[in-house]
């Protein structure tokens, strides 16, 4: 049986350096980052990627107050993705729409806030908010989105560490192919900068970035990189079966050509290059493509010393003889947006199908020799001969790896 072809027909996002695909893309080409200093409880000032979208565009003040930051991000991105798709959303059957949102963390923020609040009242739990349970359940961002858009089809989250953005898209593809839904809203979101525990955890690992200039703090592949800049954000996509998209004359951003997910099973934190290479090769096999058919590889590199090196080893192995394959990274611009990372980083490269430009990895003053990869695009964008396929590499703690391939749509 021939599998349904699944295409992207809408994109909605918010990032630390842009609240729409056009703004985000332009800042990636112009070298504009979006990192700032914020005050973090118990820690003082920390570097973070903060989004400045308007939650009241799609929510009432009470809904923002009762809900979560992750929920607001998801609602904003979903509404933007639906609008961008051109669907007659008001008149379509909402029970045939699914929401699949990848997350890394959820509930930490609200729990930390409530513990802090009751600490001021001698830990008297009568001051604990009655909104806590719906705020902290893992399906919250998808659930808030279903309430906001009145979607009655399946809506839930996919916990997949920092591969979650890719996994939201993978799951949506599977559900569309199974015929469970006719439209999927999928990707990833993160509210991680609201949790001091994430910052404290990375700091205790020696993996929290420091730099006098916030916009130079996130520096994947640079010899002097010293850790992660934690960020919030989100990117959700409207996905449809090709025949449905064509029937209504939809704009098609690209087609999901292949994917694969595997596990290292070797370490809690340190990625395994052999397993990552296996993951990328398996995605290529499913797409019926050779490595040389890929024109952009977007790396996951987070600017940790060993993490970047391990990923570069895998990419060198898979794309060793691919002179037309360019490699880039997005985290120098926006930091690490955790569950949103894969989805946001894919969005930044999608316009390359139209303009042929490959955005750079920035903040690389001295390239680490162990991170040297052929055609690594550094500090300035380049014009590629052609861009017909993008591989988005995304992985996370406890050894989850994902590779997602999007190709230029053609009949």
Account of the protein in words:
- With 411 residues, this protein is α/β, with parallel strands linked by helices.
- It has two domains: 7-247, Peroxisomal Thiolase, Chain A, domain 1; 257-407, 3-Layer(aba) Sandwich (Peroxisomal Thiolase, Chain A, domain 1), CATH 3.40.47.10.
- Helices cover 33% and strands 21% of the residues.
- A hairpin with a 3-residue loop joins strand 2 (35-40) and strand 3.
- It is globular and about 65 Å long.
- The protein starts with 5 loop residues before the first strand and ends with a strand.
- The model has no long low-confidence stretch (mean pLDDT 97).
Per CATH, the class of the largest domain reads Alpha Beta
CATH topology of the largest domain: Peroxisomal Thiolase, Chain A, domain 1
Main sheet specs: 10 strands, mixed
Query: How far apart lie the N and C ends?
Result: 19 Å
The side-by-side strand order for the widest beta sheet comes to 5-4-6-8-1-9-15-14-10-11
The name of the CATH architecture of the largest domain is 3-Layer(aba) Sandwich
**CATH H-level homologous superfamily name of the largest domain:** Thiolase/Chalcone synthase
CA radius of gyration is 20 Å
Write the element-wise H/E pattern from the N-terminal end onward: EHEEHHEHHHEHEHEEHEHEHEHHHEEEE
Return the structural class.
alpha/beta
Q: How many domains would you count in the coordinates?
A: 2
Helical stretch tally: 14
**Overall morphology:** globular
Taking pLDDT < 50 over at least 5 consecutive residues as the criterion, the unreliable ranges are none
Return the average pLDDT rounded to an integer. 97
Counted beta strands: 15
| Percent in helix | 25-40%
Q: What proportion strand? A: 15-25%
